[in-house]
Amino acid sequence: MAVKPDRVAGLSEGEQFVKAKDTIGWILSNSPQTSRELYRKLVKKGYSPEVAETAIVWAREYGFIDDVSYAEMFIREYVFRVGKSVSWAKNRLRAKGVENTDVDEALERLDVDGVFGVEAERERALTAGRVAMRRIGQAGDEAARQRKFFSRLARLGYSYDICVFVWKTLSGESGGTNYYDG
């Protein structure tokens, strides 16, 4: 179990390191974390920045944390299962402290048969757009439906250009099937 912040202050650096390793194990048993997230949590619990950094290095050496694997898991979950855009996932991973090189490496590992190409991104956006069209329905005026539609796709992280492409395709303006007609 993790040690309380007030109990960490009186420990020597060596004792803090041992407790920090235990705390890392406890934190990781609850959910996967990035190196930066773990560092922040250790410092918040009262460990010195030096001890926290040393414990993070230890956890990396023993394979308890791996930001590239974390990024792969995150991308699989949010891009493939939830339907978020790749750019949304990249931004969230960077906000969680994953380095750009680690994010790029994770994308390379996962990019089998071009699943992150423009066409694949458009297909995921079309799938999300179909769901959005069903939820928005036919009620209200065209401008209101379009605003709701664009808002839904934008929250998923799709760019304006992709939103326009999907709107035109699904509403029949570019030769696609008109999904508004039931």
Polypeptide structure, described:
- There is one protein chain.
- This protein is mainly α.
- It has three domains: 57 residues; 44 residues; 64 residues.
- It is built from ten helices and no strands.
- Helix 5 crosses helix 7, helix 8 crosses helix 10 and helix 9 packs across helix 10.
Structure classification: mainly alpha
How would the global form be characterised?
Answer: elongated
Helix content: 55-70%
Strand content: under 5%
Low-confidence stretches: 174-182
Biggest β-sheet description: none
Number of strands: 0
Order of helices and strands: HHHHHHHHHH
What's the multimeric state? single chain
Could you outline the blueprint of secondary structure elements for this entry?
Blueprint: H1 5-8, H2 13-30, H3 35-44, H4 49-61, H5 67-82, H6 86-95, H7 100-110, H8 118-136, H9 142-155, H10 160-170
Helix pairs in contact: 2-4, 3-4, 5-6, 5-7, 8-9, 8-10, 9-10
Quick structural overview:
It is built from 10 helices and no strands. The protein has 182 residues and is mainly alpha-helical.
